[in-house]
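hey so i finally got around to running the thing on that chain from the lab meeting. sorry it took forever, my laptop kept dying and i had to restart like 3 times. anyway pasting the input first so we r on the same page abt which one it is
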Amino acid sequence: MSPASVGRCVPSSSSANRPPAARELAAYGGRRLLRGKRVLDLGTGDGRLALGAAELGAREVVGIDPDPAALRDARAKVRTAGLTNVLFRLGSAQELPVAAEKFDLAILSWVL
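ok and heres what got predicted. didnt touch it at all, straight out
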């Protein structure tokens, strides 16, 4: 698949325009939904929802995004937060880099 077919990358700083992850995730069940789950975050960008899911009790979160710069920001945020249950992979929703892995839940926000 060519890079043009995976969509347009929005600057990772765009998460400043979005609601806090905890508030957005609360609308879908928050801690009750996420606790102990293995979560896939599609279009993770700077990791806003991935970090939020980890902080709300997800067992593991894997964030996928086609933008290497956004993933660098996301990894830096994970290091700063001291989280060990979040990892990020370069890829697109059209061709997920997760092979035959299983997840309990997939989340996405502002991804078209």
